[in-house]
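Try it yourself: sequence plus S-adenosylmethionine, in.
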Amino acid sequence: MSLYERYVLPHLINVACGNKDITKQRSRVVPQASGRVLEIGMGTGLNLRHYDPDKVELVWGLEPSLGMRKKASRNLEQSRVPVEWLDLPSEEIPLDDHSVDTVVLTYTLCTIPDWQKALEQMRRVLKPGGTLVFSEHGEAPDEAVQRWQRRINPLWNRIAGGCHLNRPIPDLLDQGGFRIDHMESGYLPGPKFATFNYWGQAQAA
Ligand SMILES: C[S@@+](CC[C@H](N)C(=O)[O-])C[C@H]1O[C@@H](n2cnc3c(N)ncnc32)[C@H](O)[C@@H]1O
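Structure, out:
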């Protein structure tokens, strides 16, 4: 891991992903989680304050980056739900089959290198009837915006820790074996190439 990824990126992501519009997205999806929860790519723990402590028994925070886990310490201290770190990538989730009630996926599917394997792992650990709740940015519906996403993507990918601007999130979920039960989408305030969001709930198909 480079010095940039270890020391700079966690701060940048903490600020960028902590803005008020993304915080509103978190408040829409994270309170839907219940039981034993697996959060994929927990980052700096920005979702933690949105969990409902009356519904959530435990959050496994899967996060491969040491820099992110360190930067999350304050959010962990203030968490009203118990949190256990899993320091592996989502392609290798170290949990038993059918051990999770809710998978929480926010602003991470854009970054996971082998997203297909990761979604397969999420399906494996979800209990039958368990839910994936998600809020992700991705491919915009407008051709002009898509062109900008394609142009900027190579540079963005390097400065934003492997993030892709234009992943077609519903298609990825579908190809990863999830059936979307409910989804909304739209631009958040900000530059259109980075702000088209998809959020909702899915189940293993
Ligand atoms: C943009 S941040 C989002 C963090 C957090 N999910 C949030 O909503 O604030 C993307 C996160 O994905 C993590 N990540 C990168 N590769 C991953 C992988 N293979 N599996 C799981 N997480 C990964 C990064 O370390 C980073 O914390």
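One thing you can check immediately is this: The first helix runs from residue 3 to 16.
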